[in-house]
Design goal:
heterodimer, A: about 290 residues, mainly alpha, 11 helices, about 5% strand, globular, B: about 375 residues, two-stranded antiparallel sheet, about 70% helix
């Protein structure tokens, strides 16, 4: 086992973990504030990826593709929140079940619009190709994914800690009645957060489409990863999502090489251990 | 107020059950083999949905991973069959795998509740799916295992239908007994208030584990029947879609009702196998139906129906309008026919806290 091999698998794990963080952060933020487990998050990812891939194919601009993916999924999130979820506000189980219905519809419409053949985002320009890392080379795009995620992660942290909106969100997480009593429009904060979470899923879809191909069923696969990450990290915690993403990304990368038959099992085992020892996750608070 | 309607209501119910059973027995003589095979499938998925319903309806724990247990049983049977074992050994493999996987589900999920339970079971189901998909030497990977023959006495479609029907009746009866037992009362107590049941001295994890074992056994049975029906098993039988559809069946029919899973299973199987031949976008239709039911008929078709009937009866009996929908059905308190739990959904867990918990404590005191 060479150093190159270790380095390469570590980078694979980190870049996949980075993608997982983009995905899981939206998932966990929505849960933290609204107590909604959005099982349509994977379908949002898939839709964002398809829209991004198609747009990039048409324009050749990754930025335009990312914008298109984010906007479409955010609009869908807004619709789902305003028209459907709002009617069930505060009833956790029906809300989750409703998102299952939404995921059926979105995934099926993706199949109708974009077909069943695998599709991926064609990376061009400076991000294409490989970069030189001493004795080995590594795809530039994967390094770019890590960079994007670091920027988004720092942005989320700063926004949550030091901005007015972040303060409102933290207040809503702590005690939504009290937050509403201070005069803030908690309803609008909720809607905004759901749309923001959907937008992050859309962004993850576009970014991820350059790394992993899109096809029917990816929505469920990716949802499982998001679930495992937030169960390990603790639902509602950004820090937990970060730690969980890196952990699961690395475990997945190495287990795919070492024990390919059990690669699903290896991400499940840490989840089971965390659940038994600490049911609220590493950084989660008691529900 | 035990009014004179009670015996008549029970008689009506028995008559309906008898008519339903008679119709079910007459079915193979009246319709094509394709339809009989479809109805067999309805019964099989009805059993799977009933296993989800036991925990969802009475304990408030919605599992989105039960297809994983069913598939494990199916794979056990199929693998043993492929490797030349006799029927006894095949069933033994199925039983052992069912119990093993149910125990893992139970152990991992027994300390969770609400949406956490849902997520954990979802993840567990995906793990079974992943193992079925990746362990190709044993499971056949993506292609699955095909050519699994039913035992000789079930080889004809109508024989298999009658066998499935008999099993379905037995399973429904068994689950009904479980739900009516003191254990069922404890389950409903846990649904209404975990903290209260815990302070009363009930070991919640043990009850959740036991419920998972009972529910998992039924799911495993459905899994074996599904493999015999299709003569084939593949990873998708453990997939999210399968598990989610079982939940959809439960919600559509009416969570916690005895025959809701069967109603839900009829709708889903019809959509998936009949509507799909006319309409390519059947998952969208199913998703929309599901969304509409959750939003506007949260107690499902049977739950909503029986509540409406109860309101109508009460209005006729008292001659004045009764409370709006969503309230407890207007059945007389203490009536043995249909306790309040039957018409309530997981949504009711936070609002209707008292009655069932009280009855479960008396059950323990006896």
């Amino acid at each position: 086992m060479s150093v190159d091999f270790l380095l390469q698998q570590t980078l694979n794990g980190l870049s996949f973990g980075a993608l997982l963080f983009l995905l899981a952060s939206g998932f966990t933020l929505v849960f933290g504030l609204m107590r909604i487990v959005n099982l349509a998050h994977g379908a949002f990812y898939l839709l964002g990826g398809y829209v991004g891939a198609v747009t990039v194919a048409a324009t050749g601009q990754l930025l335009v593709g990312a914008l298109a993916g984010v906007l479409v999924v955010a609009a869908l999130g807004l619709g789902a929140e305003r028209v459907l979820l709002r009617r069930l506000r505060g009833r956790e189980l029906p809300e989750v079940l409703l998102t299952i219905g939404v995921s059926f519809v979105v995934a099926d419409l993706c199949l109708a619009l974009f077909g069943g053949n695998p599709m991926s985002l064609r990376v061009t320009g400076p991000l294409a190709g490989a970069m030189d890392l001493g004795s080995m080379s590594y795809p530039r795009y994967r390094v770019f994914v890590i960079a994007v995620t670091v920027v988004v992660g720092i942005g989320l942290y700063v926004a949550q800690r030091h901005s007015r909106v972040g303060a409102m969100v933290r207040a809503g997480v702590d005690d939504r009645e009290m937050a509403a009593a201070t005069g803030m429009n908690i309803d609008r904060v909720f809607s905004g957060m759901f749309v923001f979470g959907a937008a992050l899923a859309g962004l993850a879809g576009v970014i991820g489409a350059g790394m992993l191909s899109l096809r029917p069923g990816v929505d469920v696969d990716i949802l499982l990863f998001a679930l495992v990450v937030v169960i390990i990290g603790g639902l509602g915690s950004i820090k937990g999502a970060a730690v969980g993403s890196v952990l699961i990304g690395l475990i997945d990368a190495f287990s795919k090489v070492w024990v390919p038959e059990f690669s699903y099992f290896t991400i499940f085992a840490p989840m089971a251990i965390v659940l038994v020892l600490r049911p609220t996750g590493l950084f989660g608070r008691a529900a | 107020m035990k009014n004179a309607l009670m015996p008549r209501r029970a008689a009506t119910r028995l008559a309906l059950l008898g008519a339903g059973l008679a119709a079910a027995i007459a079915t193979p003589y009246a319709t094509s083999s394709y339809n009989v095979s479809l109805i067999t499938l309805v019964l099989i998925f009805g059993m799977l949905a009933a296993s989800v319903n036991l925990m969802a309806g009475h304990m408030g724990l919605v599992s989105v991973g039960h297809a994983g247990i069913a598939a494990a049983a199916g794979y056990g049977l199929a693998w043993a069959s492929k490797n030349g074992h006799g029927i006894g050994a095949q069933l033994l493999f199925a039983v052992v795998l069912t119990l093993l996987v149910s125990a893992v589900y139970g152990l991992v999920s027994m300390r969770t509740h609400g949406i956490f339970f849902l997520m954990v079971t979802l993840a567990l189901g995906m793990v079974v799916y992943g193992l079925a998909y990746r362990m190709a030497p044993v499971t056949g990977g993506e292609n699955g295992l095909s050519g699994i023959r039913r035992p000789a006495f079930l080889s004809e479609y109508w024989q298999f239908y009658f066998f499935t029907l008999a099993l379905f009746v037995l399973v429904t009866l068994a689950l009904w007994v479980v739900a009516r037992s003191p254990f069922g009362s404890v389950m409903r107590g846990i649904r209404e208030s975990e903290s209260r049941m815990s302070s009363l001295g009930y070991a919640l994890p043990a009850y959740k584990f036991t419920a998972m074992m009972i529910s998992g056994s039924v799911a495993g049975l459905a899994g074996v029947m599904a493999v015999w029906h299709a003569e084939f098993v593949s990873p998708s039988s453990a997939g999210f879609l399968r598990s989610a559809l079982a939940v959809v069946m439960v919600i559509l029919g009416g969570t916690g009702t005895v025959f809701g899973p069967l109603v839900g299973s009829s709708i889903v199987v019809w959509t998936e196998h009949v509507l799909s031949t006319h309409l390519e976008r059947w998952p969208t239709v199913l998703g929309l139906i599901f969304i509409v039911v959750i939003l506007f008929a949260p107690s499902g078709i049977l739950g909503g129906g029986s509540a409406a009937v109860a309101r109508w009866r009460a209005r006729r009996a008292t001659g004045r309008p009764q409370p709006a929908p969503g309230a407890e059905p207007g059945a007389p308190p203490g009536g043995p026919a249909r306790p309040p739990a039957d018409a309530s959904t997981p949504t009711a867990s936070s609002t209707t806290a008292s009655s069932t918990t009280a009855s479960s404590t008396t059950a323990k005191g006896q």
